[in-house]
Specification:
By secondary structure, the protein is mostly beta strands. Helix content is about 10%, strand content about 40%. The protein has a 25-stranded mixed beta sheet that branches. Strands 16-17 form a two-stranded antiparallel ribbon. Strands 20-21 form a two-stranded antiparallel ribbon. Helix 4 packs across helix 5. The longest helix has 12 residues. The chain is globular, with a radius of gyration of 23 Å. It starts with a helix and ends with a strand.
């Protein structure tokens, strides 16, 4: 439908009965999985913006969905609501498309939305927004099964699994812009949302008073990326697991291996975040669970602006994590930047089983950069306080093709590459970094796989109350004090 006709339709549409609810169907949206409903979404959002109202999504019929092909801007104070509460529809291990119903958004960004170094978001948030009860499916993102990629006639076929793992994403995946983005985001809540097939789900360059709750997703890139958050950020009830819109995970073991092979595949990417609170998280098949901070080699990237951010020392993330399960990862926690205030981790489980081609030169020789914790040089002077930590390893090939236990991959439980900084800053002694662990249980790892450090490392790992493969161990300090 031409844009002019949509504008006329918007003017002629019956006003909502309660004066603040604006249904996309009243502005021309069809939800038939074919019609481009982007203009109708934007018209409803603009109308709601005049009063700080709500954009409502009527349920679609089974197999239907609202097609969105370019950025929809939610003005300040405007909410986007599908299901009033709870997930948009019952979802477990891949409800077939023909049965998917409710508040379904089919994200189909046009090629001009993600060409080149910059990309456009699906939803741009103006601040003070609430997004609730929607299912967002990037149904044109390639998601081949193992059976498909192994057929010689498949466009996704490669001669070997190793070639597929290393080339598939660059050759075939669509590098969409973030699902949610806002230049300066404050007072935003995203809850009861399911999303599949994104490149980045949520990227906020500047944020505060952000609440992200009960979100079930899986995609190619980052789940939650916060560059600078100078006020409250609370994230809880996150399920980042492959079984979102496709069949059970072991039918896509090759694809999951290719996605998690890339260091850019990060569940939580925090640049500078003051006082975060993250709880009740499950991450399953991902390269890195949490990346805290950024450095010159690994800057925080904003795909919308093309900006790169590296925090100064002392401006790194600090806060608390509780009840975190990282299952089948290459790196559990990557500690990149230092700050005076600690990162407090409680009730943490890290299962390291995915291999990497990246190695780090340690005092004992090259070691695979596969670990539950990696301490980088910029973490100098900082401390991570960890209580009740469990680290394990086994290789579930049905989940991710080519999975390798720590001893197979040549990784470690803890990798330390932090030489420290001799120069003091105010009252901060930056010569040493530390991970202080109270209550550590390690299973399926042998003693040579517990710790490795670079020759110039000064970081330490202090462990109190330690069990290794079911046997109690004396307290231990690894590293150079």
């Amino acid at each position: 439908m031409p844009a002019a006709a949509l504008c006329l339709l918007a003017l002629l549409a019956d006003p909502p009965a309660n004066g603040w609810e604006f249904r996309v169907t009243a502005y021309g949206a069809k939800g038939d999985a074919t019609t481009d409903d982007t203009a109708a979404f934007q018209a409803a959002a603009d109308a709601a913006g005049a009063v700080g109202g709500v954009v409502r999504l009527d349920p679609v019929a089974p197999g239907g969905g609202y097609v969105v092909s370019s950025t929809v801007r939610l003005p300040p104070g405007v909410s986007l609501i599908g299901a009033p509460s709870g997930m948009p529809f019952f979802l477990w291990e891949g409800v077939p498309r023909a049965q998917q119903r409710g508040a379904v958004i089919l994200a189909r960004p046009r090629a001009d939305q993600y060409q080149g170094e910059k990309s456009r978001p699906l939803f741009e948030l103006g601040g003070g927004n609430l997004v609730r009860g929607v299912y967002i499916l990037y149904d044109e993102q390639p998601w081949p099964s193992d059976e498909e990629v192994q057929r010689a006639a498949s466009p996704y076929h490669y001669a070997t699994f190793e070639q597929f793992r290393e080339r598939f994403v660059n050759d075939h995946a669509r590098r969409y812009g973030p699902t949610f983005w806002g230049r300066h985001v404050a007072g935003v809540t995203i809850e009861d949302v399911t999303c599949h097939g994104y490149w980045d789900f949520c990227v906020f360059p500047a944020a505060g008073k952000v609440f992200l709750e009960r979100i079930y997703l899986y995609g190619y890139g980052r789940g939650f990326a916060l560059q600078e958050a100078r006020d409250t950020v609370r994230i809880r009830g996150i399920h980042l697991v492959p079984n979102v819109s496709t069949a059970i995970s072991w039918q896509h073991a090759w694809l999951q291996a290719a996605i998690a092979w890339r260091p850019e595949n990060i569940a939580f990417d925090f640049g500078t975040v003051d006082g975060y609170s993250v709880s009740d998280v499950v991450v399953f098949v991902c390269h890195t669970g949490f990346r805290l901070g950024a450095d010159a080699a690994r800057p925080f990237g904003d795909p919308v602006t093309g900006g790169r951010y590296v925090p100064e020392w002392g401006q790194a993330p600090w806060g608390s994590l509780d009840n975190i399960k990282l299952d089948n990862v290459v790196v559990g926690f990557e500690l990149l930047s230092g700050t005076i205030l600690p990162n407090q981790l409680r009730n943490i489980m890290v299962h390291v089983s995915l291999p990497t081609a990246t190695q780090i030169a340690t005092a004992g020789g090259p070691v695979a950069r596969q670990a539950a914790f990696v301490i980088e040089p910029g973490f100098a002077g900082a401390t991570a306080q960890v209580s009740q930590l469990a680290i394990s390893s086994f290789s579930p090939d049905r989940v991710a093709k080519g999975a390798q236990m720590v001893h197979q991959a040549g990784g470690r439980a803890f990798l330390a590459a932090c030489p420290g900084i001799d120069e003091r800053l105010h009252y901060a002694d930056r010569r040493q970094a530390a991970i202080a662990v109270q209550g550590l249980v390690i299973s399926n790892l042998t003693p040579p796989s517990l710790f490795a450090a670079t020759a110039d490392n000064r970081a330490v790992v202090e462990v109190r109350s330690f069990r290794l493969n079911g046997v109690g161990q004396p307290d231990v300090t690894w590293g150079s004090p």
